[in-house]
């Protein structure tokens, strides 16, 4: 059972990490480096915990018309997303993946380094979001206000 302070920290997405007391932003962006959707968790939360939730939100408008597209053609992620559960989730949905395996995992299949280089698009998106001082330093005490500032920064990037 979590104490009252821990419950507030969970609700407001504040927690300890290597860099101190912080919030972790989980981001999904398109191939052009524009943010599609994001989630906030406490600083020490692992990426795999919110992966499915992140993948289920954020639709992209089709250029040809019709319903917005939710599933991407391919996911490119770092070793933090290397788990059997994530790989099964993506395979069930017909999404290709380029995620390097951890050193302690069995190495099966080919790993395409040229496709993996596209992961820097996400890092550049984080960099552009962190150019907004309110995002980089988290002035807002409430998680919903911080999410609002992330949304405004994302809209600015799309314009």
TrEMBL record:
GO terms for molecular function: DNA binding; transposase activity. GO terms for biological process: DNA transposition. It holds the Pfam family DDE_Tnp_1. Residues 17-157 form the Transposase IS4-like domain. InterPro entries: Transposase_11. It comes from the Bacteria. NCBIfam families: transpos_IS5_3 (NF033580). This is IS5 family transposase. It comes from Chroococcidiopsis cubana SAG 39.79.
């Amino acid at each position: 059972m979590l104490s009252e302070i821990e419950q507030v920290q969970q609700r407001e997405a504040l927690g300890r990490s290597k860099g101190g007391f912080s919030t972790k932003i989980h981001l999904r962006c398109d191939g052009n480096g524009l943010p599609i959707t994001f989630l906030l968790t406490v600083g020490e939360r692992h990426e795999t915990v919110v992966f499915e939730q992140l993948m289920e939100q954020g639709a992209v408008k089709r250029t040809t018309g019709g319903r917005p597209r939710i599933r991407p053609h391919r996911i490119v992620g770092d070793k933090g997303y290397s788990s059997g559960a994530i790989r099964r989730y993506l395979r069930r949905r017909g999404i290709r993946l380029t995620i390097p395996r951890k050193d302690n995992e069995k190495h099966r299949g080919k790993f395409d380094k040229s496709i993996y280089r596209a992961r820097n698009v996400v890092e550049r998106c984080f960099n552009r979001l962190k150019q907004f001082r309110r995002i980089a330093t988290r002035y807002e005490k409430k998680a919903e206000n911080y999410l609002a500032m992330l949304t405004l920064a994302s809209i600015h990037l799309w314009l």
